[in-house]
């Protein structure tokens, strides 16, 4: 199959613009998605993720900029693009009144398979997705997880080169989510490139080779999950105090010893500080140890203390929120 040799990107978009009335849903979006990978699009509600997917899948015409999918322009060569891609939408498209098997056979027939081939392919996919027992039940009687699996099965009937998955696991329980992840991994192992939008940072962290963080219709950060985490600091110190009355003192001590911004997190006794690489070249662990000693010297009782790599959640908050707008008083 062409496009899997790593040289030609699956998607290359520059300066994409899409407006709806006064809303600039896409405001100069740039994207380069290597073939053969899972690429994550992350962003808050309304960031423009679904709009980007719809433009790249040729369902929506951009007002500006350019995009190519496997080298084909999404506007001028839409047919060529469509022959290579498949879309599982945020609000998916199987027929609720038909059974799982009937849906897949119908779609197979629409793709031009003969009846026996469509039936066989349906049976294979239902088995692969653990839906054999549910094959002859109407889709409207499926659980959310089964429903999502049949959606993905429908979108890979034709083994696309590029699969768009717009929030494939939103609303699913943890078990169904991990089943969908397994399916995504299997699809990628067969050479399909996946563009995944998600609200769940752990999902992007586990599945995506690279991630673009989208906000206000633009990419504000891009990289591997590790690169994005490293970009906001060397580590995160999390502290739980015994006495909430000592939180302000503890925050001041941490800010001084770590030379870092300290933020309250969650409950009345927790604090979080982002450790950046210091000028005197001491590592994050040395700085964290100093901070712990300083708290002890001040008579502050610490119940829990940890140093870890920033989570993608913390990256996301740091990038899409304005830390200057948040402070101890505002959040407590
Ligand atoms: N058909 C439309 N008509 C008018 N406005 C739209 C339309 N589609 C999207 N928008 C607006 O464009 C912006 C981007 O929407 P989009 O659906 O792309 O965001 P999203 O990142 O997918 O959000 P979510 O995480 O909620 O799915 C939003 O402000 C939205 O209200
Ligand atoms: Mg969306």
Automatic annotation (TrEMBL):
Topological type in the membrane: Peripheral membrane protein
Ranges of residues in domain ABC transporter: 11-241
Domain of life of the native organism: Bacteria
Pfam entry (one): ABC_tran
Keywords for this protein: Antibiotic resistance, ATP-binding, Cell membrane, Membrane, Nucleotide-binding, Translocase, Transport
Cellular location(s): Cell membrane
GO MF annotation terms: ATP binding
SUPFAM superfamilies, A to Z: P-loop containing nucleoside triphosphate hydrolases (SSF52540)
Family: Belongs to the ABC transporter superfamily. Drug exporter-1 (DrugE1) (TC 3.A.1.105) family.
Protein's name in the database: Daunorubicin resistance protein DrrA family ABC transporter ATP-binding protein
Organism phylogeny: Bacteria, Bacillati, Actinomycetota, Actinomycetes, Micromonosporales
């Amino acid at each position: 199959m062409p496009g899997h040799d790593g040289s030609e990107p699956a998607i290359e978009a520059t300066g994409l613009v899409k407006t709806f009335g006064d809303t600039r849903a896409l405001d100069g979006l740039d994207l380069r998605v290597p073939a053969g990978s899972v690429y994550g699009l992350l962003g808050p509600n309304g960031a423009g993720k679904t709009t980007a997917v719809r433009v790249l899948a040729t369902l929506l015409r951009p007002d500006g900029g350019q995009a190519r999918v496997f080298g084909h322009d999404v506007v001028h060569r839409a047919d060529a693009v469509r022959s290579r891609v498949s879309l599982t939408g945020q609000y998916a498209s199987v027929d609720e009144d038909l059974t799982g098997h009937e849906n897949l056979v119908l779609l197979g027939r629409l793709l031009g398979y003969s009846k026996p081939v469509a039936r066989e392919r349906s049976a294979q996919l239902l088995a692969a997705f653990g839906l054999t027992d549910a094959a002859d039940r109407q889709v409207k009687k499926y659980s959310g997880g089964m429903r999502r699996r049949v959606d993905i099965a429908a979108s890979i009937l034709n083994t696309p080169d590029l699969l768009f998955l717009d929030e494939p696991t939103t609303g699913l329980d943890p078990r169904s989510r991990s089943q969908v992840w397994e399916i995504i991994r299997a699809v990628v192992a067969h050479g399909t490139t996946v563009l995944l939008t998600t609200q769940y940072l752990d999902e992007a962290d586990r599945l995506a080779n690279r991630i673009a963080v989208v906000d206000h219709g633009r990419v504000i950060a891009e990289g591997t999950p590790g690169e994005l985490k490293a970009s906001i600091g060397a580590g995160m110190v999390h502290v739980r105090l015994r006495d909430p009355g000592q939180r302000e003192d503890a925050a001041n001590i941490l800010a001084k010893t770590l030379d870092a911004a300290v933020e309250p997190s969650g409950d009345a006794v927790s604090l979080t500080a982002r450790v950046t690489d210091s000028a005197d070249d001491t590592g994050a662990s040395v700085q964290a140890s100093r901070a712990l000693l300083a708290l002890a010297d001040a008579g502050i009782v610490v119940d829990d203390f940890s140093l870890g790599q920033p989570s993608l959640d913390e990256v996301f908050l740091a990038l899409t929120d304005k830390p200057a707008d948040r402070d101890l008083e505002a959040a407590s």
